[in-house]
Automatic annotation (TrEMBL):
InterPro entries: DUF5319. Residues 22-33 have a biased composition (Acidic residues). Residues 1-34 are annotated as: Disordered. Pfam families: DUF5319. This is DUF5319 domain-containing protein. It comes from Paractinoplanes toevensis.
Length: 131
């Protein structure tokens, strides 16, 4: 089973992103620092928790404000997981573009997901802490 979505242009000579691979050849590929790698691993771990908690409520993934184009990008759980794994293995983020006509009601921010998970955790541990 493949963890990442299949590239619909794989092997296509007219792939619009084919030249982008060449851009990285001139620049030295710097691997992630240990701190960056740890951050990505923590994001992957958090993503599993967020998906487990939020999927049953109808949330399909996360929305991230793109630093490059300043537009929201909507990522389903599996796509975001694949992007993070790609970052771990290559040291570079994938080329991306906004999803086609997503329903914003089905996506939340990282901050919302983190707050939701913290709230669930606090509710479950309420009364078990010795004060």
């Amino acid at each position: 089973m493949q963890d990442e979505p299949i590239d619909p242009f794989n092997g296509d000579p007219s792939d619009p992103a084919a030249g982008l691979e060449d851009l990285g050849d001139d620049a030295e590929d710097e691997p992630l620092t240990e701190a960056e790698r740890q951050d990505v691993l923590e994001d992957l771990s958090d993503l599993e928790i967020y998906q487990a908690l939020l999927s049953p409520t109808g949330i399909r993934g996360l929305v991230i404000e793109c630093e490059d184009c300043h537009e929201p990008h909507y990522f389903d759980w599996d796509l975001l997981r694949g992007n993070l794994r790609h970052l771990l293995s290559s040291g570079r983020p994938r080329v991306h573009e906004p999803a086609y006509d997503p329903d914003p009601d089905h996506y939340v921010t990282w901050e919302y997901a983190r707050g939701y998970a913290d709230g669930v955790h606090d509710t479950l541990t309420e009364g078990t802490d010795d004060e």
